[in-house]
Amino acid sequence: MAISTNHVASLSKPCISSFTTLKVLSKPNNYFHPGQSEFKRSSISCNVTSEASTLTINAKENDFKTLQRPNSVGRFGKFGGKYVPETLIPALTELEAAFHVIAVDQDFQKELEGILKDYVGRESPLYFAERLTEHYRRPNGEGPHIYLKREDLNHTGSHKINNAIGQVLLAKRLGKKRIIAETGAGQHGVATATVCARFGLECIVYMGAQDMERQALNVFRMKLLGAEVRGVHAGTATLKDATSEAIRDWVTNVDSTHYILGSVAGPHPYPMMVREFHAIIGKETRRQALEKWGGKPDVLVACVGGGSNAMGLFHEFVDDFDVRLIGVEAAGHGLDSNKHAATLTKGEVGVLHGAMSFLLQDDDGQIIEPHSISAGLDYPGVGPEHSFLKERGRAEYHSATDDEALEAFKRVSRLEGIIPALETSHALAYLEKLCPSLPDKAKVVVSCSGRGDKDVHTAIKYLQV
Amino acid sequence: MACNMRTDLLISQICPTSGHVSVKRRIGNASVVRAVVVDHNSLVKNIIGSTSSLMMRRPTLPNPQLVEETDNERKGCNGKFGRFGGKFVPETLISCLSNLEAEFNLVLHDAQFQAELATALRDYVGRETPLYFAERLTNHYKKNNNGEGPEIYLKREDLNHGGAHKINNAIAQAMIAKRLGRKSIVAATGAGQHGVATAAACAKLSLQCTIFMGTKDMEKQSSNLVLMKLLGAEVKSVDGNFKEATSEAFREWVGNLESSYYLTGTVVGPHPCPSMVREFQSVIGKETRRQAMDKWGGKPDVLVACVGSGSNALGLFHEFIKEKDVRLIGVEAGGFGLESDKHSATLAKGDVGVYHGTMSYLLQDEEGQIIRPHSVGVGLEYPAVGPELSFLKDTGRAEYYSVTDKEALNACQMLCRLEGIIPSLEASHALAFLNKLCPTLPTGTKVVVNCSGRGDKDAEMILNHKYYPMEKQFPASQNS
C-alpha cells in the first residue's frame, strides 16, 4: 500500500509554517551555533516541491522548540499524518487514545520500568571505547572521545525490544489476542515474538524472503519462540514488502489484531509512540553522560533505516541545540548507483505506508527498490520526524556504503571485541569521516543499536574470514 | 581419611626410565599427594599428552560420608578442597603457577585493579545482570500442582556481553595477563562461549589470542567459531572435543611460558585456576544476594545451576556456601541416560582421580582411562568436574542430579514459549530439573536458577533435532 507523490495538488491541505534564513558562521570545529550567527526572517507558505535540494536548511531555535512534534493530527511540520484506508482509522484512534492514557498512568509506567529493568536488562551501559578513541587520535595526540550506547546488550540483541514491550502492554490493555509485525533484519521480529511469548499472545511476523535467507539465525529464533514467520516474495522480498503485507493483514483483521510496527514510520500515532518507547535510550544517555564527564554529549551518531534507534537517542536532545545530531543511512553500492537506501539524501517527499515523508521514488512516483547489505536499513522510506529534522536543519544526514560498513564491522570487532550489527556498522563507519574534524576531547556517542551475531554469515562471505 | 594409592604405579607412569620422584602422603583430613618430577621437557610433553597421565588407581574408600570441613578447606587455601584440588603438574609449571597465584592475591587487594574490573564489568559486560521473576514459569508449575509451588527467579547471565557468564572470568584474567606483561593468550573452549569471551577480552585489551577447539565441537557450534575469528582470534582445531582441546592448549602454553598466558575458562585445572575462576564468577552470587534482599527482603531458598566443569554453578553458589539454609543443587548432563555410556554425569557416576592437573571426580573406566562424555549441551561435555564441587558433594553441602538430552531440549522449548527467553542447552539442564524439584517445594519458596547463557548458538540445531517439536504442551502461538 504505497502512495507516492511529488505534486502539490495531491495534498489534502497545505501547511503553513515560517522559515528563517540563518547564516552560519563557518567555524574550524564545524559546530552549529545558531545563537551566535546572523539571520534574517521571512515567512512563506510551505509547498511540497519535487526538488529536495531547494528546501533551505535553516531553523530558529525558539520557533523550533515551540512546535509540537507531532501536532494533534500527527504532523511533524508537513510530514507524518495518517494516509490509511478508512478501515484503519478507528484502530489508530483507539491506539492513540490508549497511548495517551498510559503515558500518564503511574502504574503502567512502573510496570514498564520493571520489565525494562529485569527482563530487557536496562539500563544499557554508556561504554568508553578506548581503542576506537585511540584509533581516531591524531598525530598531535588530539581527538574526540568515542562512547558506545550499548543497545546490543538488551535482551534479544538490539534496541527493538524497548518498543515491542511497550506496544504489547498496550495491546493487552486493548484486549487484543493476535499480534502481527513486519521485520527486516529480524530483530524486530524476534523482539515481537519474544514479547508475545512472554505475555501469551499469538504472533505472526512478515519477513521478506530475501531477508529470511540473509538473516536465517533470526528466523530460527522466531520459530523457537513460537511465532509464525510468513515469507513475503513480492517486490524485492525485503522490508518494504513485508511492511505492505503486514498492513494488508491488519486491514483484514483489525478488530482482533494489534500491529506492532517496528519503527518510527507508518501512520500516526506510530511514529510518536515508537519514539516515546525508545526515548529511554536518550534519557539514560543524558544521565550517564553527566555522571561520566559532567556534561552532555557533543555529537550523537546513529544509523537510520526507518529511524527508530536514532529517534530514541536523539529525542532527549532535540531541543539542546549545542548537541549535534547525525543520522547515517545506507549508501549501498554508492549514492550514484541505483543500489542504495539513502532516502534523506536522494529521496523526495511522498507518502509511503501511511505517512508523508522522504522516500526513494522515480519521476512517475513509483518506489525505487532500495539496496543495502544490511537488511534493517534496506527501506525506501524513513520516519517522518527525521524528514522534519532534516528539513529544519536540526539533524544532519549522511551515508555509508556497504564496503565502508563492512570495514567498520571488522574494525570495531577487532578493536573493542564488540561485533556490531551491520546496521549499526553504518553509524560506526561514519566516524572515519567525522572524527578528523572534531575538536580535542569532543564527546561522541554512537548508538550501538544491535549486535552482529545475525550477520556472521554475510561477514564471512564478504570479509573472507 | 586416608587416600590410598599405588605409588609404584605412579612412579612408573611419571618416570618410565628413571628419575627422582617423591611422594608425600599424609593420613588425616587433608590428604595431600604431590608428585614432583625432575624436569625433562620431552617427558613433560609426553605426560601432558597422554590422556591417562598422572592417573591414580581408584582408592578404596568406604561409602562417601560427610566429611567435616574446615574453613580453610572450604576456601581452598593452598589449592585444596578437602582431598580435592592440588597442583598435579610438571615442575616446569610450578613456578609459573606460583607467580600467577601471587599476582592473583595482589589483584584481590589492589583497589585500582578492582575499580577497573568493576568498570569493565559494568560498561563492557553489561553487569549487573537482572534477577528476573519468571511469572509464567512459576504459574506453569503451580497450575500442575493444585496452585502450590515455589517462585522461580532467573539470574540472567544470558544478557552478558558474549551471551554467557564466561566473560566475567575472561575479562578479569585478560586484565591480569596484561599486568603480567604477557602479549598473548591461549585458551581452550567447548561450546565456544569461553572462546568468544576470551577473544572479545583480548580484542579489547589488545592481546593476541589463540583458541583451541575440538573438531567435533566446531561442527556443533559453528556460529561461535565464526564469532571468534571475527573478533580476531586464531582458532586451532584439535581432533576430538573439549578435553583434547584443553590438553593441546596446555601444551602450547608450556612451550611459551614467558610470553603467553593460559586463560582457563572454568574451575578445573591446577591451583590457583579453580580459585581464580571461582573468585571472578562469584560476582553472580554477590549480586543475587543483594537483589534477593531488594526483591523479597531475604535470601534464596534454593539455588539451581547446570554443572559441566562447574564455573557458573560455583559463581552462584560461592556466596551462599556457608549458609546451610540455602540449598545448592547442581544439575549434570545425563545424555542418553545414566545407564547408557553416553552422558557427562561426573559426580553421579565418576570416581576420584587426577586430570588436567587437579584431583577431582572424573569419568574413568577400571583402568583409569577417560570415558568420552556426551551431552546435547556441548559445554557440559567434560569428563571431570571442578574440585570444589567434588568437595561440596563429599561434604553433603550440595546435591547433584542429572537430566537427559530430551529433558533439556524440552526445558529449552518451555522457557522459549513461556518466557520468551532462549536459554542455552547447558542452562536448559538446570531448568529441566525444575520438573522434579518444584512439586516438592512449598508455596513461597524462592528458587533462583542460573540462566548461564543464551541459546542463539543452539537455535538451528534445536529446530533440526529429532526431539523437536517437543511435547504438545508448548505449541506455537499459544494463548495463555
UniProtKB/TrEMBL annotation, chain A:
Keyword Amino-acid biosynthesis annotated: yes
EC category: lyase
GO (cellular component) term, any one: cytoplasm
Gene3D superfamilies recorded: 3.40.50.1100
EC number(s) from the headed UniProt entry: 4.2.1.20
Catalyzed reactions per annotation: (1S,2R)-1-C-(indol-3-yl)glycerol 3-phosphate + L-serine = D-glyceraldehyde 3-phosphate + L-tryptophan + H2O
Superkingdom of origin organism: Eukaryota
Keyword Secreted: no
Keywords carried by this UniProt record: Amino-acid biosynthesis, Aromatic amino acid biosynthesis, Lyase, Pyridoxal phosphate, Tryptophan biosynthesis
Recorded GO MF terms: tryptophan synthase activity
Cofactor(s), by name: pyridoxal 5'-phosphate
Annotated metabolic or biological route of this protein: Amino-acid biosynthesis; L-tryptophan biosynthesis; L-tryptophan from chorismate: step 5/5
Matching InterPro entries: Trp_synth_b_CS, Trp_synth_beta, Trp_synth_beta/beta-like, TrpB-like_PALP, TrpB-like_PALP_sf
Sequence ranges assigned to domain Tryptophan synthase beta chain-like PALP in this UniProt record: 122-450
PANTHER family tied to this protein: TRYPTOPHAN SYNTHASE, TRYPTOPHAN SYNTHASE-RELATED
Protein name: Tryptophan synthase
Organism: Castanea mollissima
From TrEMBL, chain B:
Cofactor(s), names only, from the UniProt record: pyridoxal 5'-phosphate
GO CC entries: cytoplasm
Alphabetical list of SUPFAM superfamilies matching this protein: Tryptophan synthase beta subunit-like PLP-dependent enzymes
Entry-linked InterPro entries: Trp_synth_b_CS, Trp_synth_beta, Trp_synth_beta/beta-like, TrpB-like_PALP, TrpB-like_PALP_sf
Enzyme class (EC, first level): lyase
Keyword Amino-acid biosynthesis: yes
Pfam families attached to this UniProt entry: PALP
Record-linked Gene3D superfamilies: 3.40.50.1100
E.C. code: 4.2.1.20
PROSITE patterns tied to this protein: TRP_SYNTHASE_BETA (PS00168)
GO MF terms, alphabetically ordered: tryptophan synthase activity
Keywords: Amino-acid biosynthesis, Aromatic amino acid biosynthesis, Lyase, Pyridoxal phosphate, Tryptophan biosynthesis
Domain of life per record: Eukaryota
Domain Tryptophan synthase beta chain-like PALP, residue spans: 126-453
Known pathway: Amino-acid biosynthesis; L-tryptophan biosynthesis; L-tryptophan from chorismate: step 5/5
Catalytic activity reported: (1S,2R)-1-C-(indol-3-yl)glycerol 3-phosphate + L-serine = D-glyceraldehyde 3-phosphate + L-tryptophan + H2O
HAMAP family for this protein: Trp_synth_beta
Listed name of the protein: Tryptophan synthase
